[in-house]
Specification:
Immunoglobulin-like; five-stranded antiparallel β-sheet; 0% helix
Length: 144
């Protein structure tokens, strides 16, 4: 079973831009020591909004990511970022951001894709409300 803990989009001082990250962890019943997990991320953007009052409307893609990592099945977390580190695009506009991921185990056997969308967050120039929470979603590790 793999679990994703998805952070809401936020301004990262270290990256100097708006990002969101997902922390994936997997556990296995049996002898599968690791899985390869593909994660597709979309950082969405809607102009406008303010803390506690996100802008409405469909978000456009401000950044995307497509990453595959080996994730141990001992519960250790592996972090995925959108946009990926090293991407030169600086996302700094004030507005409302959403993060969404679709993740899928791609080996040792193909799993079922699982998707999650974060809460809408306004920013990045204004501190984000503390009441926004992280979310979890799960996908089963396929039998080998």
């Amino acid at each position: 079973m793999c679990t994703a803990q998805i952070d809401n989009p936020h301004f990262s001082n270290g990256a100097g831009r708006v990002i969101f990250n997902g922390r994936m962890s997997c556990t296995s019943i049996g002898n599968t020591p690791q899985v390869n997990l593909r994660v597709l991320g979309i950082l969405g953007y809607v102009p406008g909004g303010s803390p506690g009052h996100p802008a409405q409307g469909p978000p456009g893609a401000a950044a995307t990511s497509d990453q595959t990592h080996t994730v141990p099945t001992n519960g250790q977390q592996v972090t995925y970022y959108t946009p990926i580190p090293g991407d030169p695009k600086k996302i700094t506009a004030t507005g409302t951001y959403t993060g969404s991921v679709t993740f899928q185990i791609v080996s040792p056997a193909l799993g079922t894709p699982t998707s999650y969308r974060s809460n809408r967050r306004s920013g990045p120039s204004i501190p984000l409300p503390a009441r926004c929470s992280t979310a979890r979603c799960t996908a089963a590790v396929p039998s080998t």
